[in-house]
Amino acid sequence: MNLLFKDLFGIFKIFEDVYERIRKILIPTTAYSWQTFIYLSVFSWIMSYFATGYIRDIIALCGWLFLIAGTAWYTTDDPLRVPGTFMPVGAVITGFLVSVFAFSNQEDVITSRTIVLWPTISALITAIPEFIEGSDTDSKTRIPKPDARQKIIVLVASCMMISCWLQFYFVLDKWLQEYPSLLAENFGRSTFVITREEQQKIPTNGVVILDRLQPLVEEQIAERPWSEVERWLLEANVRVGQLGREVLDNNLAQYEEKVLWRVEPRVVNNKSGYRLDLLSIWTGPTANPRGYFLRKSCQIDPVATTPINTTTNSRIPEEKKAVAEIQCDRLNKLFSGAAPPQQ
Predict the structure, then answer these.
(1) Using CA atoms, how far apart are residues 148 and 156, in angstroms rounded to an integer?
(2) Helix (H) / strand (E) containing 20
(3) Name one Pfam family in it.
(4) Does the pTM exceed 0.85?
(5) How far apart are CA 286 and CA 336, in angstroms?
(6) Degrees (nearest 5) of the Cα angle 140, 142, 143?
(7) Are the C-beta atoms of 329 and 218 separated by less than 8 Å?
């Protein structure tokens, strides 16, 4: 029984210790403490919720300043260093808060600029105490000692380099979003780019252009009089060019690479009729110095049709008329090198 009571008292002692630690964190010993700033930040954000206009912005600004000050104070009382550096972990946390406060917007709290400048701001926050000496009430500026200067320069330069690499990542990511056809390139010899996903074998936008262009061409050729189709083929450069611009405007408007695609036709006369090659030509950057293009071939042949005669007793033989029949390839083909010249 005594052992049971002893265990119960031990459990109560654990809860008491936890309670004391929580109370020590939540209840400041003096009014001038980091807890006061945290509570002021929470109070400011609550008040800003009920305010409107510029008053809300001012109160929210004060809340951010209180939060940054309280966090910096708490994390620098007994700083934990980042391994291998003299940068406190508190400076990293404070730098993140400052970066969010300075570069966030109403739509996105964390932006690319927030992430990019975070390491540099943290390094500057770490370096600030080296330029100040004295206590909180009696402090003055100073020039850091030579060994401290070296540490500051190395730390700030290293963090700036990290910021540059982060910015480089966001630049590449933006390029790939605006120019998705670059994903079809081979980055095997690249020092900076590592592709984790399976490489595209054919540019998606090039396929979209030809797939959207095909029904428009078929609509203007199918079942039209053969003489009219031959005139259309003579003007294929103009006709296909207009349709190509329409396809680009309707399907690639959200991509910056729209201006790097060019749509051209190639008309080849064969025994049965004509072969119309629809080409989507990439004029943007590529690992192949000669470029590449995609092709969809359509065979156009004349087909004789008998017009419908409404008179049933007519003995006059009906004249057959030739109309166009068009059949296009189902798949698009990718070719390396320059597009073939027009004939």
Answers:
(1) 12
(2) helix 2-26
(3) DUF5357
(4) no
(5) 11
(6) 170
(7) no
Contact between 114 and 99 under an 8 Å Cβ cutoff? The reply is yes
Q: Exposed, middle or buried, 284 (CB in 10 Å: 0-12/13-18/19+)?
A: middle
Residue 144's pLDDT is 80
Residues contacting residue 201 through CB under 8 Å, at least 6 positions apart: 184, 334
- Element at 263 (helix H, strand E): strand 261-269
102: three-class secondary structure by DSSP? helix
The pair of three-digit structure tokens given for residue 57, joined into one six-digit string: 């912005």
Residue 197 has, within 13 A of its CA and on its CB side, a CA count of 6
Phi, psi of 64, deg, nearest 5 = -65, -45
228 φ/ψ angles, rounded to the nearest 5 degrees:
-70, -35
Q: What pLDDT score does 7 carry?
A: 54
Q: Which residues of the chain have pLDDT under 50?
A: 5
* CB within 8 Å of 131: residues ≥ 6 apart: 141, 142, 143, 144
SS (H, E, C) 149-188: HHHHHHHHHHHHHHHHHHHHHHHHHHHHHHCHHHHHCCCC
Which residue intervals of 78-225 are DSSP H helices?
A: 89-103, 112-127, 146-178, 204-221
Q: How far apart are the C-alpha atoms of 140 and 143, rounded to whole Å?
A: 10
Block residue for tokens 């080296």: 130
The set of residues, in sequence order, having a beta carbon less than 8 Å from that of 200 and lying 6+ positions away, is 183, 184
- Summarised one tens digit per residue, pLDDT across range 280-324 is 999 888 877 788 899 999 998 888 776 655 555 555 555 667 888
What pLDDT score does 279 carry? 92
CB distance 187 to 195 below 8 Å? yes
Burial class (CB in 10 A: 0-12, 13-18, 19+), 3: exposed
Q: How many residues does the chain have?
A: 343
pLDDT score recorded for residue 33: 75
- Please tell me the predicted confidence (pLDDT) of residue 211: 92
